[in-house]
Amino acid sequence: MELDVTEFAKEELGAISGSIAELGPNAARITWRNALEAAQDVGLTMLPGDAPEMARQWLRGFGAWTVEELAALPDREIRALVLQFIAGDLREAEDLCGRADGGIDWEQYTAMAECGTVGGRLYAGDNGQIYFYMGD
To answer: Confidence band (pLDDT; 50, 70, 90) for 107?
Structure first.
């Protein structure tokens, strides 16, 4: 499933995926709280309808949660997890492939994805939008 993350990319993503170095020893608590809040707003727009169930299937592939654990998580928490993945990937792309004008060098990002340096879940559409691919 592809998600249009163009508007989300304009947000302060460090609030959702910041590290201990950036936010201090409570970074996990801070970023989770912020992701839960974002899941109520942007998460509903980006992950509507059956998207949380598709996200559960995608998240199973990571092996971090059992099927039962994922099934028990409310849709809001699933959306928050996905938002944290998207924010982290966007920040990584900006840090490693950022251009002087603030955009992302998509050729460089693709090359880094092919080498395994980045996850490669992001891509620019022909319409100028930024997409996140949630799937295998």
So the answer is: very high
Q: Say what the pTM is.
A: 0.93
AA identity, residue 92: E
Q: Provide the token pair at 64.
A: 């971090």
Q: How many CB atoms lie within 10 A of CB 102?
A: 7
Q: What gap in Å lies between CA 55 and CA 52, rounded to an integer?
A: 5
Residue 3 in contact with residue 129, Cβ under 8 Å? no
Which tokens go with 108? 């460089």
67-100 tens-digit pLDDT: 999 999 999 999 999 999 999 999 999 999 999 9
Q: Is 41 helix (H, G, I), strand (E, B) or coil?
A: coil
Q: Which residue has the tokens 């959702």?
A: 16
